[in-house]
Each structure stands twice: as structure tokens, then as C-alpha cells.
Amino acid sequence: MNKLGILILAIFVGLLIGGLVGELLAYILPTSVVRTFFMKSVDFGLDPVVLNLIVIKLTFGISLKFNFISLVLVILTVYYFKWWFI
Predict the structure, then answer these.
(1) Residue 71 has pLDDT above 90, yes or no
(2) What is the model's pTM?
């Protein structure tokens, strides 16, 4: 696997782990400004497209959800990648 593939995989894993950690912190923390900060997220993606072929119906779509912790982990991942692989 080349370096670009490893970087993309590392960023994807950073987003997944960051989203999980952010959601867990949001449920653990009491109701406050900090909890609201961790619960705040940005969603973007493509609306689902349905392809009906009479026999089979296929639905395609993608949606991404970012929060603060996922952003921090992506930045750390890119920094680590730069320090370790380049």
C-alpha cells in the first residue's frame, strides 16, 4: 500500500474514532456548555438515490458527520503521518 493510501485510511480511522469518542463524551458529561460543544456536529453528504430495477431496488448515498474530537484526531493523524512516514 502506498503512502497516500495509508494517509487516507488513517484519516478515515481518525474520523471514526473521533466521532465515537465525541459521542461517548457527550453522553458522559452533564448538561453544560461543554456537553453542547461536544454534541455539536456538522453533517454533509449526498441525498439517497434510488434505482428501481423492478426485480431489485438499490439505494445509494453517503453522509458524513464531523464533531470537534474527530477534527482533533484528524489533525493528530496528519501530524503523526507527516512525522512518521515522510
Answers:
(1) no
(2) 0.66
